[in-house]
Amino acid sequence: MPYNRLSTAEEEIILKKGTETPFTGRFHDHKEKGIYICRQCNRPLFRSDAKFDSGTGWPSFDEVIRDGIKEQPDRGRTEVVCANCGGHLGHLFRGERVTPKNARYCINSLSLDFVAL
């Protein structure tokens, strides 16, 4: 199945593992009910009820949709990529105690798309 066409900015994040500027992403303050999907391949990644305001400037989630992502080491951090296409999404931080699930998936808005429910 072919992937979605990406803008230059999306390619920088998804394919080249970049990071968007904090507080600028379209999903940073997004509050609509639905499912966040991979911008490149449409794989379901996060439910809106797992999203929370972490104050970091990027969309943050404390739970992933089963089999949505893969975790891999990244210079002392944990990178998260789409389990289907391998596109870079962001990073996972554990142990911060910011939610009861003790996880913060810090995700680039440009790596995501959204399907309203």
DSSP strand content: 35-45%
Number of helices: 1
Strand order of the largest sheet: 3-4-8-7-6-5
Query: Cα-atom Rg, whole angstroms?
Result: 13 Å
Shape: globular
Structure description:
With 117 residues, the chain is mainly beta. It has one helix at 8-14; strands spanning 34-38, 44-47, 51-52, 60-61, 69-74, 77-82, 88-94, 103-107, 112-116. Strands 3-4-8-7-6-5 form a six-stranded antiparallel sheet, with no helix packed on it. The chain has a three-stranded antiparallel sheet with strand order 2-1-9, with no helix packed on it. A hairpin with a 2-residue loop joins strand 5 and strand 6 (77-82). It starts with 7 loop residues before the first helix and ends with a strand.
Topology, pairings included?
Elements: H1 8-14, E1 34-38, E2 44-47, E3 51-52, E4 60-61, E5 69-74, E6 77-82, E7 88-94, E8 103-107, E9 112-116
Please give a quick description of this structure.
With 117 residues, the protein is mainly beta. The chain contains one helix and nine strands; from the N terminus they run αβββββββββ. Helix content is 6%, strand content 36%.
Question: What attributes characterize this protein structure?
Answer:
six-stranded antiparallel beta sheet; 117 residues; 1 helix; mainly beta
